[in-house]
Amino acid sequence: MRVLIATLTVGGGHLAAAAALEEAWRRLRPHDTIERLDLMVFFSRLHRKLYSEGWVHIATMAPELWGFVFDRTDDPRVTSRLRKTRGLLPSGSRAKFAQFIEKSKPDVVLCTHYLPVEVLGNLKSSPQTTRQPESTLSKVVRTERGTGRQKIRRRGPPVQPFVVSVVTDFEVHAVWMADGVDLYCVAAEESRVRLVARGAAPETVVATGIPVSLKFSTHPNPRAARKLIGVRDDVPVLLVLSGGFGMGPVADVLRQLDKVRKPIQSIVVCGRNEELRRELAAEERSHPTHVLGFASNMHELMAASDLIITKPGGLTVSEALAMGRPLLIVNPIPGQESANSDFLLSHGAAIKVNCIEDIPGRVEDLLGSRKLAAMRKAAAVLGRPNAAETICAEVLRRLGGE
Known about the structure:
Structural class: alpha/beta
CATH superfamily of the largest domain: Glycogen Phosphorylase B
CATH architecture of the largest domain: 3-Layer(aba) Sandwich
Oligomer: single chain
Largest sheet: 6 strands, parallel
Shape: globular
Low-confidence stretches: 127-157
Distance between the termini: 12 Å
Radius of gyration: 23 Å
Helix content: 40-55%
């Protein structure tokens, strides 16, 4: 079986979900042909820069605008009209992706970003791509240049892969929906109900969880994890995350943590933002603080922590829940992050501060409290550490695989 995992480098979550799916599929069927594709390879240099960085600038500099666009486009009828409008304009990247699909002929395409969902949906719903039986293949007649002779070629049946939309947030925005999708894999039962209410066929929607790496199902012993990382075992550990691109208000969070009167220690992950890491590492702190760059041992860092302070990106949240770790949410971006925040708050797995200045008081109230213990239990209930394998197994079941 040929498997394509299609994603886009827009935030680290989509890439992490794609990697988790590849890991799970290889574990289930090691002899299959699996390829992971970032659609950015088909973009021009300018298009790539605008797509990968444009949303970051809007979300950080004008979050209200981002939220407005998110809300106004969160309607299947609106997204359908937008797709038709884009279809009137030439798009080299979409055409290249379609050519790639035709050439590679995957049996399954797992999409961890909505753009490949859109392109594949257009391909599968187009009249030109209706599947034809082998006996009725149309003939293509070409005249060979310079000879006048005609050469007959048979056009093969168009590629019709099994398309899976793997939604990487707890809110299913309308852009994840397309006519050609065979299966939707969503974060939770609430996500499934919402998608069905918006018109998706019930049999095509499964609440699997958001795919995370297999290592988040191992649950290292907290004491062993702290020893491995090199932090004290007798003082609460706060894990402060900035996201893969170092977007979060990490510096402001640390300044507030300096005001906490109880003994604490912090682990700070700055992602790929090396400038931020150097800046934070050079500053004096009231409490022991370990400043890291990109961390490949996030499961160990989470295992060692008592509380995770972060923005609520879909993958970060899913990893924390898989480890059974409660969250303190700061500055959710209007749109998908606000929706993720609402989900966590409604289930008691997180608290949210509306002002950064509220952090010291909330941390002091939480540490060692029954509230924190209840949040930890709620997070463990919500966690789906085996989501990636669940998705792959569901796809194989529907295709008649083992």
